[in-house]
Amino acid sequence: VNWTREEQYKKLSDISEVEYNKLLEQVNQSKWRQIFHIQPKSGLLNDPNGVIYHNGTYHIFHQWFPLGAVHGLKYWYHYTSKNLMSFKDEGVALSPDTEFDSHGVYSGSAFDYEGKLHLMYTGNVRDNEWNRKSTQMIAVQQEDGSFKKFDKPVIHDVPKGYTEHFRDPKVWKEKDKYYAIFGIQRENETGSAVIYESVNIKDWTLKGEIHTKLQDFGYMWECPDLFKLDEKDVFIFSPQGIEPQNNQFENIYQSGYLIGDFNIDTLEFEHHHFIELDQGFDFYAPQTFLDKNGKRILIGWMGLPEIDYATDEEGWAHCLTIPRELTIENNKLVQRPIKALEKLRTNKETAEGYANKHSVKLHPYEGKQYELIIDIIENEATEIYFDVRVSKKCSTQIIYNTRTKQLTLDRFESGVVSEAVDKATRTTTLNKDLEQLRIYSDTSSLEIFVNDGECVFTTRIFPDENAVNFRTSTESGQVYLKFTKYNLQ
Ligand code: FRU
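That is the input. Now the predicted structure with beta-D-fructofuranose docked in place:
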């Protein structure tokens, strides 16, 4: 679909109710609508924004272009939740309706100030020559739940030495000060992040760049997030312009992290190397927050920019990932689905047995929306194949090579695939033998947690409607497997 600039910058209020209802109807007919993921009711969803637990309620927002599956004029769409498992639709929270954010209410975060929920975000403005201008804005929640923007930006200009690519504030409070970290591009076109500080959230002063070893690492860093976890500091960001390297960084843009020790006074960050957060095809721009028990939870965008998706022509695209709890083990982030998701389980089925080179169709694994836990009890196979969401024509394959410990996700026969993605596989080498796969399958996605959170493959799939089967086989030798499956609702 080719959209003119004018069409892309149409507001929701520019179209009639009849026209919008037509779009909604079309979206609702899609056979790829998810059932336990946050997805746009129409149009395009991208980054999760402003995720927070505040005064007993979880808030989650996302970037939204209402009118179609393109990156047009962005809004913030709002959900609340008591448990991170079921969500209440709160509608639009922020619209591009001021001179400081006329071309998009871009990404940002939420924080508490004097008991009230505040949002800090980037206002995107284009001038007549279509030159970009970025402002940093704040909005505060009112008694009636709506959000009121401050009269003017809290940061109006880009700091000296940088381009207008300056966005995605993540705010936190430390002692009596507020800090915000932003993604930014230096004038020499390398990516970085800068930190501002404030005592009253109205006046912000630049502290400077975070000092990492990554001085020449891509041309822009988007969606930074800096937090403490298990006595360490973690810096998550989404760099653009990183080349693929030994099965890593194969998507168009990356999301990853540094673990180490950060000093807020000197801005020095001593760290290990940059590690990719997810091994799948569709993961970007994650954001973290603390849940009501003080656990660090991550939610990402299950999608990437500049790639076409099978639902585009239906007038919608993308969803968010399920929430994952983060911990640090052996200097790496471990990601596990949050415990609350267990409440989505409906009926439990189990089975166990040997699989060998004759493909075994193990019952009862039919379905589209489920959680399937596969424990590898005894493995003498050279290579194991797990075929997920199988029909006559489609199959998504997970391949484990026992000798190399390489785990591969193969979307070659998954169904409709994006032309913009050139390889059909993603591979990673595990630190230890494959012991467990925990697969969350929704209508059009898979989130595969490996070895209790050692790594995750997050991917969209667009199979045909009969793709409900599951099979296991090996190249040679046999494997003893135990299956536990829950339907999810
Ligand atoms: C990341 C991003 C952010 C920006 C937002 C706009 O996907 O490009 O940097 O704020 O999306 O929708």
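Residues 46-47, 63, 74, 106-107, 122, 167-168, 222-223, 284-285, 305 surround beta-D-fructofuranose (CB under 6 Å).
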